[in-house]
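During the first year of the project, the team set up a workflow for recording each protein of interest as an amino acid sequence followed immediately by a discrete structure-token representation. This format lets reviewers and collaborators read both layers of information side by side without switching files. As required by the reporting guidelines, we include two representative entries from the current panel. The first entry is reproduced here exactly as it appears in our internal archive.
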Amino acid sequence: MVAVTVIELASEEASVTVHPGAGGRLASLEVFGRELLHTDPARGPLGWGSYPMAPWAGRVRHGTFRFAGRDEHLPTNLPPHAIHGTAYDATWEVRDAGRDYCALQAPLAWPFGGVAHQHIHLHPAGLTCVLTVYATRTMPAVVGWHPCFVTPDRSSLEFAGMYRRDAEGIAVREIVAPKPHPWDDCFVEPRSPLRLAWREVALELTSDCDHWVVFDELPGLLCVEPQSGPPDAFNIGGATVLEPGEMLQRQLTFRWRPPDRQD
């Protein structure tokens, strides 16, 4: 284990700050001199940087679900629901770090135990994050990321469908046509690459996750969140069931370039 409190990664085009003690999150992502993320911890742990979500992502209705014949209860950290797992405000151990990469690990503080691992790699044209959950007993799992972007000048976020939300604002097991903005919704099947653009930088997000939550209900903030399953997956389906010794792994890549002249 490497005893550090802040990790700084750098390339010719970008600099990244990782805070192991604040949920193992990207605290800053600056590209071509432009900060892309909200960086103020005063926004609360759910509202800044880009943080990992594990062992669930999004809301779990009333913090309760049934698994293997038992009722399970989670802390309702966004009353009356549980949201975004336990990793986003955990203290992560630094297992390794260099000029352009780091590896972090944290236990999962929930009834099923397990361990989460991150590998973050800054390369010439982007940043790749790999998030892995390892099971020590049979458990459900969903993983993902929650980047809190400064609202871009332009965005291209088009999807074939979205999960309908009910009166409590929770996704239900029904796919409908996307509604107009503002969004706090889970989408599937991107119709084209997911792109954001500021004056200084054009950004494309790619992931092997098949669900994307987009949140733009607050001024100045845009969250584009890849997830391995939908919100409330423990109740509506879509979680991965892991046996002891098995893992769930997904990756997210931020790929950047200077904006085109027509952007």
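The second entry, processed by the same pipeline in the following quarter, appears below.
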Amino acid sequence: MSKVGLDHVLKRGVAEIIVEEELRQLLQSGRPLRLKQGFDPSRPDIHLGHVVGLRKLRQFQEMGHQVILIVGDWTAQIGDPSGESVTRPMLSHEEVRRNAESYMKQFFKVVDKGRTQVRWQSDWFGKFTLSDVIRLTSKFTVAQFLAREDFRKRYEAGRPVAITELLYPLLQAYDSLEIEADVEFGGIDQKFNCLVGRELQGMMGRRPQQVFLMPLLVGTDGVQKMSKSLDNYIGVDEPPYDMYGKVMSIGGDDLIVPYFELLTDVPDAELKEMRQQIESQSVNPMLLKKRLAREIVTEFHNAGEANAAEERFASVRQKKEVPKELQGEVKIGVKVGAQVVVQRDIARRIVEAGLADSVSEATRLIAQGAVTIDGQKLSGSHAELKNGSIIKVGKRGYLQIIDADNWRVTKA
């Protein structure tokens, strides 16, 4: 990630800053600022949606400021309701700690570990008493929290809002008080929570934190924000080919430039040219998407892995060629000649290989003509297989028959 100027940091990939003029004055004061961002390890691994904020923090680190990452091992047990229309399930402390282990390894793919402090909420909330909770909750009213859009909509619709959910913004706000945050970073959906922190600091006689909000990265479905629960995410720890393929699967050409803007260092002038090219249809969007996929895979792996992923994608997905690892003579297993296999057994094998989630889904793929054996669509209830036969499952991957008991799989 290259060094950039202040105006660039405060304008590119930014949804809102509260209050920008105050933040500029702080940044120009020469004092290293304490920058806060919290992450709830409600699920294992982080994805590119998280990376949007982490990249912004890295830019501030390069300007000499200190990052404090808050691992929300308490708030994750509640579940942040931001943008949700229903109460989220509570997690056990053990589940949260396990999920957090993967976070700790992946944060530093983006931010500078040497200029980052990691704090666990349990360091202070583990010592909280009932009197501490009562003092904290007395600072705000129910009416203030019902002004928050997602709470208000659920309340007006008669859907439940748990008292624990009302605690979430208070706990997040107390984090800012505890670590003496100068600036809190988050997605635009975190605006209410961040402002509660700013207000609580002011109540306690501290300088109110500035609030730095980023746009939400839309997931690969092209509709909703990137989320593991929606299965529209691209994980930062995914293998190069999987990462490349997921970028190429992003729905909607209108997402190409926002992805470049939020996740790469491609200059603003080039982004402007890309927008014009897409609007005027003077460029094949597939070419821009390939560049985007290369940029992202290179960022989290290396250029060699990105080139290899692109070559494999072109071969397997575009030219419909069989992956190289499945080509040539099969030397594993003993040849047993042709075997007749019923459709349900093929469906079961497809599920066991991870190329479908259930036998019913695999059966549906077969019925839709999305499954081929040695290039021929599978039809009817039986199929003849032999050693070396290759079953292709839609765009998902391949199964190769080694012998009656051994099948080799590779993802497309």
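For the second entry, the following points were noted during internal review. The two ends are 30 Å apart (CA to CA). The chain has 18 helices and 13 strands. Both points are flagged for discussion at the upcoming steering committee meeting.
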